[in-house]
């Protein structure tokens, strides 16, 4: 049995603002929706699933909030949280785990919450911008061995593992909702974002500024910054990723991560509001997450 119980949830809010709180009869407490990450489940998928199961609301994840850790039965429970907005709502159905759902303004929500860490999470959210826009920087999925490919490099396609990664990425990226989708003009990048684009019914734009061999760091960063402010995703190459993250952080006056690189099928998500970087998170298409 692992020493750490991984869980995920969201501070779900709507205009007002009002916040969704759930009551759990087993504990007789009020909290934000959350739940354990299933074996092999990605934390982004777990956050969306748990919110929907406990509230009937399909969320769109916003900025990353603080991780909450506490002791539970001699083990550590670690809960990853995001701010989230509703995009679809079904009738709430009480069950054994959650028997009440209420939407409350901030002061009433603070008074109702049972745990100090949830109150701190509410304060953290209120101290920052409410609405943010995701800017995803994605490295293409696996595309076989470059040295084994005999045709033009821009035509090198995803391999079997890469196609599976692209399929997984479609669901994970959908956690942030529809985004403008921009890709390097190479087959491996286009194929990486195609399942997502089909899922959200969005076109894929190709951009030389993100295409290896056709760009330079200044040009790539300038083009990336021009997309900030509305939900957007860029799929590019390992040679370009570090320059984009470094340039984004420098331009916005933020500290660079210790490691700006990405493995194949990994992505950075920068949450932006009014020219400010409010959160930066890194994910892989598989279950591991940092």
- Envelope shape: elongated
Strand composition percent: 25-35%
> Which blocks of ≥5 consecutive residues have pLDDT under 50?
none
Structural class by helix and strand composition: alpha/beta
What is the H-and-E element order? EEEEHEEEEHHEHEHEHEHEE
Helix content: 25-40%
Per DSSP E runs of 2 or more residues, the count of β-strands stands at 14
Determine the CATH topology of the largest domain: Rossmann fold
Question: What is the rounded distance between the termini?
Answer: 21 Å
Our count of domains comes out at 2
Taking all residues together, what is the mean pLDDT?
93
Q: What would you say the CATH architecture of the largest domain is?
A: 3-Layer(aba) Sandwich
Main β-sheet: number of strands, strand sense, barrel status? 8 strands, mixed
Query: How many helices?
Result: 7
Classified in CATH, the superfamily of the largest domain is: Phosphoglycerate mutase-like
How is this structure best described in words?
Its EC number is 3.6.1.55. This is 8-oxo-dGTP diphosphatase. Belongs to the Nudix hydrolase family. Pfam families: His_Phos_1 (PF00300), NUDIX (PF00293). The chain is of the alpha/beta class and 290 residues long. The protein contains seven helices and 14 strands. The protein folds into two domains: 4-127, Nucleoside Triphosphate Pyrophosphohydrolase (Alpha-Beta Complex); 133-284, Phosphoglycerate mutase-like (Rossmann fold, 3-Layer(aba) Sandwich). Helix content is 29%, strand content 32%. Strands 1, 2, 3, 4, 5, 6, 7 and 8 form an eight-stranded mixed sheet that branches. It has a six-stranded mixed sheet with strand order 11-10-12-9-13-14, with helices on both faces. Helix 4 (160-173) packs parallel to helix 5 and helix 6 packs across helix 7 (238-251). The longest helix is centred in the middle third of the chain and has 14 residues, at 160-173. It is elongated and about 65 Å long.
């Amino acid at each position: 049995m692992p020493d750490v119980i991984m869980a995920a949830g969201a501070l779900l809010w709507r205009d007002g603002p009002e916040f969704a709180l759930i009551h759990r009869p087993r504990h007789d407490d009020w909290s934000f929706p959350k739940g354990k990450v299933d074996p092999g489940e990605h934390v982004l998928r777990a956050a969306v699933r748990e919110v929907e199961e406990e509230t009937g609301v399909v969320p769109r994840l916003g900025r990353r909030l603080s991780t909450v850790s506490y002791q539970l039965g001699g083990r550590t429970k670690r809960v990853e949280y995001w701010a989230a907005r509703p995009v679809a709502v079904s009738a709430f159905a009480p069950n054994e785990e959650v028997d009440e759902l209420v939407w409350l303004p901030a002061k009433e929500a603070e008074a109702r919450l049972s745990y100090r860490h949830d109150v701190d999470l509410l304060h953290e959210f209120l101290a920052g911008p409410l609405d943010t826009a995701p800017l995803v920087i994605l490295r293409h999925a696996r595309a076989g061995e470059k040295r084994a490919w005999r045709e033009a490099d821009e035509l090198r396609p995803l391999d079997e593992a890469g196609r599976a990664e692209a399929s997984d990425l479609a669901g994970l990226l959908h956690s942030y909702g529809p985004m403008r989708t921009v890709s390097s003009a190479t087959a491996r990048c286009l194929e990486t974002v195609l399942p997502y684009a089909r899922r959200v019914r969005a076109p894929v734009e190709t951009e030389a500024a993100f295409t290896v061999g056709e760009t330079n760091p200044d040009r790539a960063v300038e083009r990336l910054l021009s997309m900030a402010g509305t939900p957007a995703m860029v799929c590019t190459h390992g040679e370009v990723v570090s320059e984009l993250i470094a340039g984004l952080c420098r331009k916005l006056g933020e500290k660079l991560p210790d490691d700006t690189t990405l493995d194949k099928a990994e992505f950075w998500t920068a949450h932006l509001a009014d020219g400010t970087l409010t959160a930066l998170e890194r994910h892989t298409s598989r279950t591991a997450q940092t």
